[in-house]
Amino acid sequence: MNCLDLMWDAVLVNGHVGGGRKVDTGLNVELSPSHRAATGTEEAMLQESSTDEKKMERGSEVRVQDSTEQKLYKIANELLLTERAYVARLHLLDQVFCARLTEEAGKGLFPVDVVRTIFSNISSIHTFHCQFLLPDLETHMGQWSVSPRLGDVMQQHAPFLRMYAEYVMSFDQAMELLRIWTERSAPFRNVIQDIQSQEVCGSLTLQHHMLEPVQRLPRYEMLLRDYLKRLPNDDSDHSHAEKSLQDISMAATHSNSAIRQSENLKKMLEIYEMLGEEDVMNPSNEFIREGHILMLAARNSAMERHLFLFNNMLLCCAPRFSLAGHRFTVRARIDVEGMTVQRTTNEHHYHTFQVSGKERTLERTLDLQASSEQDKEDWIKAFQDTIDVFLQKNETFVSASKEVEVSMEELGRRAPRWIRDNEVTMCMKCSEPFNALTRWRHHCRACGCVVCWRCSDNKVTLEYDGNKVNKVCLDCHAALTLRANREERGEGMEGGHSRGSTPHLPISIPTLSPGCEGLV
Questions:
Q1: Residue 158: C-alpha distances to residues 79, 87, 143, 147 (Å)
Q2: Which residue has the higher pLDDT, 424 or 304?
Q3: Parallel, antiparallel, or unpaired: how do β-strands 362-369 and 403-407 relate?
Q4: Domain identity same for 495 and 462
Q5: Ramachandran area for residue 360 (φ above 0: left; ψ -120 to 50: alpha; else beta)
Q6: E strand or H helix at 257, and its extent?
Q7: Which residue stretches belong to region Disordered (predicted)?
Q8: Which of 229, 246, 275 is the last residue of a domain?
């Protein structure tokens, strides 16, 4: 019999139970001295065990507390370290790239406005982070052992992060201008290449560095969410962290679409480095899928190929040897417009399908073999989805661009009907696709068409607006300029029409739903 059994026997024999109550057992038995000693020893052991458990619980609480504080410090320190690196990147963009290009532009080698448009408000962003946010983060982290707080400093500066909207909104146009002037101007290109060759650039292009500001706000948001998740609810810094997260999330919401565009652009840069194809870098291109595949040729021979599928074209490439890594040569370029895809059967090859479409003006058919049946189905789905999206956008464009006759007498003398921005997906003059956030849409003030910034870069005076100068599309600019010149010479339009006659100019005017007239 062990000590616990003896203790329980003693309780029963003496008639006592827990709580001090006594049970009449009819027996009155005294425990022997040896039994009493054993009972005392067991009680001491139980008390000691209970004390040890309490110590272990307190130790566990201390370890949990230490672990939480360490994680909070780690998050705050990561924010500081990444902020230092980010400020260095901003310095490179503002004080090196922008400054050098501005200096060369001052010599008349290329327009200063081009440099200003490309770098947008990068100087203001650099000043804010370098002179305000980073120094305050340094100060707070230096006092972390006394006052471990991150939310208050971020709340103080979060409202100023709204300045990123301007940079993000102009990012797409900046990339396009950068591409155009790199091709057009040797001095412009030489400055960029000279800086990119320096160690400070880390073997990255200017485009890669310019992505950093677009990606910075989501980084703040991610770190603050992690910080709040680990911060106790009763901590005095909790409300500050919540408010700063709200402000940063609001600023980041406007750039989420641009983030997707920047990720797409980063992929485009990688593809450009593999192909060397300039038109891959067109901001309207969207990467869909890539992968290794076999192309079937005459006599059932198979050749290795690599496909790059975009929203508007397919590039079929052949691998070529290069010490710099994977490189490819474009062998076929098929437009998504008019493209078809279908499953095929081949007695010599499995998992085959066929892609047909136009390469320039010629019909081209590719007989392809995937690595597996699943790979084949994935490719077919990617092709079909891309074709469907293209057709849907094109139908929207066509329905919005129905031809109507516009009286030359009314053009510029009467306010046009405008189409809603979200009813068109591409420029109604050059068919350049619009992106969800970063592609500017403009209305021609003469005919009401929705056009891109390039097609709206013309100005004339319009009678209906008090002869004020307004932006118009290329067609209207040409027509109104011609009319003005002929009227100055006293001539009628179209070889003798007087002002009272009504010749018509075939300009695409969007068809509006009832009640949409006059929308701005």
A1: 14, 16, 21, 20
A2: 304
A3: unpaired
A4: yes
A5: left
A6: helix 256-275
A7: 38-60, 487-520
A8: 275
β-strand partners of 308: 290, 315
How many other CB atoms sit within 10 Å of the CB of residue 513? 9
Whether 270 and 163 have beta carbons less than 8 Å apart is answered as no
In this structure, of 29-43, 267-281, 439-453, 503-517, the range with the lowest mean pLDDT score is 503-517
Q: Are 316 and 366 in contact (CB under 8 A)?
A: yes
Rounded Cα–Cα distance for residues 485 and 487 (Å):
5
Distances (CA, A) of 175 to 170, 215, 281, 283, 451: 9, 15, 9, 7, 19
The helix (run of H) or strand (run of E) holding residue 374 is helix 373-400
Say how far apart CA 12 and CA 22 lie, in whole Å: 9
Give 245-300 pLDDT, tens digit per residue.
Answer: 988 888 777 666 556 666 787 788 889 888 877 678 777 788 999 999 999 987 76
Instruction: Tell me which of 399, 428, 458 is where a domain ends.
Output: 399
Other C-beta atoms lying within 10 Å of the C-beta of residue 288: 18
For position 203, which CATH number holds? 1.20.900.10
State which amino acid sits at residue 407. Answer: S
Q: What per-residue confidence (pLDDT) applies to 213?
A: 93
Mean pLDDT estimate for the chain: 79
* Region of poorest pLDDT, from 157-166, 290-299, 428-437, 459-468: 428-437
92 secondary structure, DSSP code: I
Distance of CA 259 to the CA centre of its chain: 1
Q: Token digits for 221? A: 């948001």
| Residue 417 and residue 344 share a domain | no
Asked whether residue 438 is assigned to any structural domain, the reply reads yes
pLDDT digits 0-9 by tens, 134-165: 999 999 999 999 999 999 999 999 989 988 98
How far apart are alpha carbons 350 and 146 in whole angstroms? Answer: 69
Distances (CA, A) of 515 to 101, 112, 418, 419, 420: 49, 44, 11, 11, 12
3-state SS string for 102-123? HHHHCCCCCCHHHHHHHHCCHH
Q: What confidence score (pLDDT) does residue 250 get?
A: 80
Mind giving me the DSSP string for 375-425?
HHHHHHHHHHHHHHHHHHHHHHHHHHT-EEEEETTTBTTBPPP---GGG-S
Tokens read off for 138: 């340094």
Please check whether residue 444 is in contact with residue 456, taking contact to mean a CB–CB distance below 8 angstroms.
Answer: yes
